[in-house]
Amino acid sequence: MILKTVNSISSYQYNTDSIVTIGTFDGLHLGHQKIISKVVQTAKAENLESIVLSFFPHPRMVLQQDNSIKLLNTIKEKENQLEELGIDHLIIHPFSHDFSQLSAEDFVKTVLVDQLHCKKIVIGHDHRFGKNRAANIDDLIAFGKKYQFDVEQITAEEINEIAISSTKIRTALLEGNIEITNKYLGYNYNFSGKVVKGKQLGRTIGFPTANIAIDEAYKLLPKNGVYIVSAIIDSKKHFGMMNIGTRPTINGENQTVEVFIIDFNQEIYDTLITIEVLQFIRNEQKFDSLDALKKQIENDKKYTLDYIKNSF
User: How is the chain split among helix, strand and coil, in percent rounded to 5?
Assistant: First the structure.
């Protein structure tokens, strides 16, 4: 199943009846996956197009001018996951102040009914929509009767589970608790970036690293520290260690993401690679000398090799 993505509601040009779910679905964790599975199964059973309607930027970035929001998924990651889960269409509509002024009934009539040909919508019981978020699930059910579509509610328990999962994932990631992060996600937390030239300090101590530049400033990274990771390069998986931090031993100031890939010596500048975070090793620390740093990295490597041997 190939996912079709469009960047506005008006760009969706299919005339087939559909089932729609609306949400940020940040992280697409296990709770989200249950909802998406429900949508996909219903779409197949009732011969409907399955649609995820999402928004970017995050509404809080626009309405509350909150640029501090960090997300678990980039748009590209969300696309890849929704495709794997079997969704037909992803609509990422630009969220703007003007769009937020659309009345609830206008949203239902012009977006859900006229544009998306919605015959069923799967939504949380606490979902609010329309100007000033004035309409609720009861209003949506009433609109459904008027415009002939069904509303399937996600239960309070499921919504609570999703909220708890999202909060736990963010908290765990910011605490370096990768075990909890990956457990709630149902997959290894990951990010992608291009390999760029760094100061090449690692080479001088026998641990050359790939410096990763991540384009999406809104992507949430784990807390500063040293991690066991896998690096996916040209569809092949390699194990290694990652340091996120400011490199205090050499009085660094800016945060960098550096990956030492074990038993790997290819030239990969400008290559897009994906890093999967497997386990936290230790906090970043300042060493008295490069020799002391090298000794610690050798210990980290031994720990990493033991972990890989026992886990894979």
Answer: 40, 25, 35
